[in-house]
Design a protein that fits this description.
binds zinc ion; 522 residues; disordered N terminus; 8-stranded mixed β-sheet; single chain; 6-stranded mixed β-sheet
């Protein structure tokens, strides 16, 4: 997935703290089918079985109205929203009680199967309920087409399997409504402290039941390590209504399309997204803002009072990175990119249309502050717009994203600057593990590595694969590979074989030997 470490990979290694993280338990194979007979919402005959209970009527959405989503798109990309009209879509009402440190929500999700085989169940992941997020979340009632069903909970309750009475065939649509509630942690020790209310920052990434990718291996459901990224999801359209303290300034994936002051100290803000892979929200009373325009894209930096200089610097890094990457990879289709200061223990974390950067870096000038920022911006292409399995094949986004920082440093400061990043950030950590005979293949799941080795292999060695490809095919073909890969997989999901197929087709060269050496470790 998508973390970028707080220290450089070498710094982490030099800390000498090697944590052994147990491999996650295998996903249980469903040997017994869950009950497929839905329970009516209400047994009383006066209630029609297809009407949802009152608690589930909170979310109003006109699925046919695409205008809110188009507002999140640059004009040339507005019609991309239409491609997702029939896709799986989310409409979410979220209410935060900051005193009680709870959130509750109602989610309507219209699922259209893009799979080749009938689906007998729909799975939702509750990432806030996993150790890496440190909160809790549970679903209350679940209905399918208005009929209440009993979901099957797995992975300590973080995976919710909703049975369908009639399997959903390819291209068919069904609508589910879920209520859910959870606690908001204040303890910064879980994972990268990416989720919770910490140091006055309310960070709520993926704070809703999210549907994982269904692919050749079926539903991708596993408990992620507390390092690395946890989400692997398809692109959807999001309409999210969040009620939170009115004094909080909030940033989120997509664009704000409505804001109501409720007169009771709370406000309800509505966000609509373009085609995005997941949805994140960050809010704080402490935020100040600075903005920059990069063509049609509004880049907004949210930073704490007292961090004005860092807030302006991060805005500059992100804006220039956006320019360089648009030129190198292709156009960023959304109208906004938010860059948000948070107390995360990662250097930064990427979400669609929003990146967070660690508050602890805001006193720096250049260095890791700049590297972490431009890394997270590159993730907008690799992970967000072109998705991949961040748990099983993290190198496909992380190593490419790391490598992309060279383009920024070269464009901005010249080839010698890029060369220094190549040496210090990629080659030094790689040499370090080689010398200690800790070298591993790049193409392994996150859980195969210790946290330290994950950093050194996927963020240090992995980018050297892309460098080797670039040296073999030449700059011009390498840039063309990246542009073609982005063009063909934008909003989609790519697997390593897809990247290789594009690279070999565009370059006209055999790259198997490089892949075997760097990625497979042969
Ligand atoms: Zn990353």
């Amino acid at each position: 997935m998508r973390r970028f470490f707080f220290a450089t990979a070498l710094g982490l290694l030099l800390m000498g703290c090697v944590l052994t993280v147990p491999r996650p338990a295998a996903v249980p194979t469903p040997t017994v089918s869950p009950p497929l007979t839905p329970t009516p919402v209400d047994a009383q005959p006066t209630v029609t079985p297809r009407s949802a209970p009152a608690a589930l009527r909170g979310v109003t959405v006109d699925w046919a109205d695409l205008n809110p989503y188009r507002r999140a798109m640059r004009p040339a990309f507005a019609s991309d929203v239409d491609l997702y009209e029939q896709a799986t879509r989310y409409a979410i009402d979220l209410t935060v009680d900051i005193e009680a440190l709870t959130l509750r929500g109602v989610q309507r999700v219209r699922v259209t199967s893009a799979e080749a085989e009938p689906l007998s169940e729909i799975v939702f992941r509750l990432l806030p309920d996993t150790p890496g997020y440190g909160g809790s979340m549970a679903v209350g009632s679940v209905t399918v087409e208005g009929l209440r069903v009993e979901p099957d909970l797995r992975l300590d309750g973080s995976a919710v399997y909703v049975p369908l009475s009639t399997p959903l065939r390819p291209g068919e649509t069904t609508e589910l409504v879920l209520t859910f509630e959870g606690t908001i942690p204040t303890d910064p020790s879980a994972g990268y402290a990416q989720y919770g209310y910490i140091d006055g920052v309310l960070a709520l990434p993926n704070a809703y039941p999210m549907i994982p990718v269904y692919d050749d291996e079926g539903w991708n459901v596993e408990l992620a390590p507390t390092y690395g990224d946890a989400a692997f999801t398809d692109t959807s359209l999001y309409l999210v209504r969040v009620t939170l303290p009115a004094r909080m300034i909030s940033a989120a994936s997509g664009v704000e399309v409505d804001r109501q002051d409720n007169g009771d100290g709370t406000a309800t803000v509505t966000y609509a997204s373009g085609p995005m892979r997941d949805f994140a929200l960050v809010a704080s009373e402490e935020y100040q803002m600075a903005t920059d325009s990069v063509g049609e894209v509004l880049v907004t930096s949210y930073f704490f009072s007292g961090d004005e200089e860092g807030g302006e610097l991060v805005l500059d890094y992100a804006s220039r990175a956006l320019e360089v990457y648009e030129e190198t990879f292709g156009t960023y289709p959304f109208t906004e990119l938010d860059v948000v200061e948070t107390p995360t223990l990662a250097g930064g974390i990427e979400y669609p249309g929003l990146i967070v950067v660690a508050a602890s870096l805001y006193g720096e000038r250049g260095g890791f502050f700049e590297l972490a920022t431009v890394h997270e911006v590159a993730h907008q292409w690799w992970y967000s717009l072109v998705g991949n399995d961040q748990l099983d094949e993290p190198w496909l986004d992380e190593s490419l994203t790391q490598y992309a920082s060279l383009f920024y440093f070269e464009d901005r400061y010249g080839p010698q600057s890029a060369q220094r990043v190549l040496e210090n950030t990629f080659e030094v950590p790689y040499r370090y593990i080689q010398e200690r005979e800790q070298d591993m293949a790049v193409g392994l799941p996150v859980a195969s590595y210790t946290e330290d080795l994950y950093g050194a292999v996927v963020y240090g060695k992995g980018p050297l694969f892309f460098h080797a490809v670039r040296q073999q095919v030449g700059d011009e073909a390498f840039y063309e590979i990246l542009r073609t890969y982005y063009d063909e997989y934008r909003y989609g999901v790519a697997y390593p074989a897809d990247w290789m197929a594009v690279a070999e087709r565009v370059s006209g060269q055999e790259l198997d030997a490089l892949y075997a050496h760097w990625i497979l470790g042969e």
